[in-house]
Design brief:
The chain has 100 residues and is mostly helical. It has one domain. The protein has 3 helices and no strands.
Length: 100
Amino acid sequence: MGSAIVWLVNTVIGMAIFFIFARAIVGWLVQFDIINTRNHFVFQVLSMLERVTDPVLRPIQRVVPPLGGIDFSPVVAWLALTVIRILFNVYLAPPLLVLG
């Protein structure tokens, strides 16, 4: 049971990091007019990525404003999630793995 919890936490954090980077890349592609949000598929993908990542990025965006038009909140979120993953794996995962 403990190994399943460790796997689940690491997978959720990994997926969150993936979605944050995907949103940043799609946002850059839209901003540089490489892809267009008038395309229905692009609009749906960007909308889904925004719904998934907004709970993580919005609080960071309130604290860290864009500097020179560049949004650093994905980088801050990536660093925070990486630190959380490391702390979880070092301090909380070993006792969970001993249980199951």
